[in-house]
Amino acid sequence: MGKRKAKKLAEKEARQMEKEMKKEKARKRRRKCLLLAIVVGGAMAARASQKPKQTPGNGTVTLKDAEPGPLAFMMSEMVKVLLQDPSKKALADRMNVSVAIQDLDNREMAATMSFRGSDVTVANGAEGADIYIGTELALLLSLSGAGKGKQMLQWLKTDDGKKVINAVKSGRFKVRGAVKNAPQMALFQKFLTPTG
Fold first, then answer.
1. Does residue 55 lie within any of the structural domains?
2. What's residue 191's pLDDT?
3. Does a structural domain hold residue 56?
4. With contact defined as beta carbons under 8 Å apart, do 119 and 57 qualify?
5. Which residue from 72, 152, 147 is spatially nearest to 113, judged by alpha carbons?
6. Which of 20, 21, 26, 77: CA 20 to 30 A from 184?
């Protein structure tokens, strides 16, 4: 075998070894990423499954602004009525979240409810909330009749349910922060759902 052939063969083997080394490094990197994802996912799942710290309140509702907007006033009155039900107050006592609601047709029509246990502060505007819900006000109010589980599936077949589905599809129903705050969002949904 000539020197040139031997040199080409050695170069080919070197390239092959280099490819194998790169593949092995990539495999190790993928394993590390997978392990990190499993550890982070497990930690997040454990955190989400922990019972929220209960912060019992007095069931007071406070309007933050001297001149509350119509939505802030309406939400504060609704929360006052809900907190009179002991089961709703017990749910609120487990809440530590702020939820902003905004009418997409009238951006000034926005309110943020900040739950610190069952002590709730309602303010004008939708900035800085943990969870943001933007939609037409009529659609949001119709959700109170949705129920849960099988009831919700049946409700989705009604005219109100179809309107909500169409609003979600067309981008007229926006929700941000619900996944990140899933346990608190679930409590908020139960809080708003009529009992019985």
1. no
2. 85
3. no
4. yes
5. 72
6. 77
92 versus 145: which is more confidently predicted? Answer: 92
Within a domain: 77: yes
Structural domain boundaries enclosing 147: 61-192
10 compared with 181, residue with greater pLDDT: 181
Summarised one tens digit per residue, pLDDT across range 83-116 is 999 999 999 999 999 999 998 888 888 999 999 9
SS (H, E, C) the chain: CCHHHHHHHHHHHHHHHHHHHHHHHHHHHHHHHHHHHHHHHHHHHHHHHCCCCCCCCCCCEEECCCCCCHHHHHHHHHHHHHHCCHHHHHHHCCCEEEEEEEECCCCCCEEEEEEECCEEEEEECCCCCCEEEEECHHHHHHHHHCCCCHHHHHHCCCHHHHHHHHHHHHCCCEEECCCCCHHHHHHHHHHHCCCC
pLDDT of residue 62: 92
Look at strands 131-135 and 96-103 and give their pairing: parallel
Say how many CA atoms lie within 13 Å of 31 toward its Cβ: 6
């979240």: which residue's tokens? 97
Indicate whether 157 belongs to any domain: yes
Q: Give yes or no: residues 7 and 96 share one domain.
A: no
